[in-house]
From TrEMBL, chains A, B:
Residue range(s) of DNA binding per entry: 38-57
Keywords: DNA-binding, Transcription, Transcription regulation
Gene3D superfamilies: Tetracycline Repressor, domain 2
Name the record gives this protein: TetR/AcrR family transcriptional regulator
Gene source species: Yinghuangia aomiensis
Domain HTH tetR-type: residue ranges: 15-75
SUPFAM superfamilies per UniProt: Homeodomain-like, Tetracyclin repressor-like, C-terminal domain
Length: 202, 202
DNA sequence: ACAGACCTACTTTACGTTCAGTAAGTTGGT
DNA sequence: ACCAACTTACTGAACGTAAAGTAGGTCTGT
């Protein structure tokens, strides 16, 4: 059919096409995992030939890193850390509704890179650690400001919070029918109740 | 026992090797994912040639199903459902220490089968649903017996519990340095506090 | 006319699977 | 006790396919 447009138009050139490749990559990775997709698939989704894709990214692995970098950059510009944990929680939940297509990228890649030799293992481990540290820091802050009770291990709680988020992400990806509002509301309530400073004596 | 079976000892040898293949499969799947391993790898680990492996299992995919079936059977004989949630929780935690090598099989496969067309998608979705139902049922039971407060949505809580377990599994697989006892203790305490019937008036 | 974008055609490698055949038991008849 | 027919377990080599990556050319806006 496309006989009069041999080269599918150059209007989507350069950075534009690059972005579309990155988007397609992210979308496909969530659904099929990194090992479950091929350059041909990504290329098709982005409207380019496999070789055309490799014109922008030197290799499949480099594309993966680029996609993750793009994702990190997006996160950094659209969400900043800090703020009350409860507040962060509802922000996270909103994300499931607002940008559902970018939920799960890290969760999927994590399970594909458990082995210490895996290409993303270290990157993901560091990120997980920093996430936990961040939440733990927020809890510690709340404790020192007297908003949270002090007999709670900030690290343990932080791991729990991250585990909940990670798990709910996984479960929702497998079955989007689960009611996120209910679950988030329930967990947030639990969190508030647990962290609240007990009213009086001992 | 069944000594009059036609080719008893020969078949026993087969079953033996079959089991070793199943074990190797499970071990490798956790580390590298299903798509990350080859028949050759599994075969080597089990001490056979790739062709020898296919003598016992018709295809790579059938091997996967067999490995999952074996896992399910193991679970069913070694752990029974029911019992207090808190109690179940410590049982689960013990498992991380006692049989660490079989932690993560489902978690890894889940992320590789998110797509509705994926071979294990339905199987995993059903299992997740039944897990949630089971926990929810246990909560409901506690509520009707007056042990748990009744203003909590059993399903939401059940999803939360499963999410926590799933998430902590993933995080531990990526970084076994996290302190499971602390995290489980903290979450269990939270759970108790949340489910406990409030002492008196409104 | 040049450079960047992109294509077709190709090479290479890896992997699942098949196949023909071998080794080692097992069984039942003599 | 022995042998022929049979069964299971397994190997080595080969095949087909799919996928990453390469070579070298073509198109298009500047």
């Amino acid at each position: 059919m496309s006989k009069q447009r041999p080269y599918a138009t150059l209007l989507a050139k350069g950075e534009d096409r690059k972005q579309r490749i990155l988007d397609a990559t992210q979308r496909l990775v969530v659904r099929h995992g990194w090992r479950g997709i091929t350059l041909a698939q990504i290329a098709r989704e982005a409207g380019v030939s496999p070789a055309g894709l490799l014109h922008h990214f030197a290799s499949k692995e480099q594309l993966l890193h680029a996609a993750l970098d793009a994702r990190d950059a997006y996160d950094e510009t659209h969400f900043q850390a800090g703020g009350d944990i409860v507040e962060q929680m509802s922000l996270l939940e909103a994300r499931f509704r607002e940008v559902p297509e970018q939920i799960g990228t890290y969760a999927v890649l994590l399970m594909e890179n458990l082995d210490a030799q895996a290409p993303l293992h270290e990157r993901l481990r560091v990120k997980q650690h920093s996430n936990v540290d961040q939440v733990a820091g927020e809890i510690r802050r709340g404790q020192s400001e007297g908003r949270y009770r002090t007999d709670i291990d900030p690290t343990a709680k932080a791991v729990e919070v991250m585990a909940f988020l990670h798990g709910v992400e996984a479960m929702w990806l497998l079955d989007p029918a689960i009611s996120l509002p209910d679950v988030f509301l329930e967990y947030t309530a639990t969190l508030i109740q647990r962290l609240a400073v007990p009213p009086a004596g001992s």
